[in-house]
Specification:
With 108 residues, the protein is an alpha+beta fold.
């Protein structure tokens, strides 16, 4: 399974604008449970540079392209906000990674 951590940063002064875009995006692109499972729907914190928001999604088998298509459509909407930056990080699970070095994930 692929896990995606999507992070975004924006000026504190743009928080209301980002919040409005977030609600707009939720209406336009409701979460599709056939594509991904939301592990963390949204987390927000302050930083010395402004605000940081993140989500963690677990992508269903064979659905990465669909997930990425939707994510980029959403990013394009957010990109209208001055100072908005984003990043997506892709991870594999420990159960998938350990066999690459000849090991097996123990039961946790």
């Amino acid at each position: 399974m692929v896990m995606v951590v999507s992070s975004s940063w924006f000026p504190t002064s743009k928080s209301a604008e980002v919040g409005k875009k977030y609600l707009e995006i939720l209406k336009k692109f409701p979460h599709d449970k056939t594509i991904s499972k939301l592990i963390v729907p949204v987390g927000v914190r302050t930083t010395s540079e402004g605000m940081k928001a993140f989500t963690i999604s677990e992508i269903k088998e064979g659905k990465l392209k669909e997930f990425m298509d939707l994510a980029y459509k959403q990013i394009l909407i957010y990109s209208e906000i001055e100072g908005y930056k984003t990043e997506m990080e892709f991870y594999m699970s420990g159960a998938e990674a350990l066999p690459l070095v000849g090991l097996k994930m123990p039961e946790l």
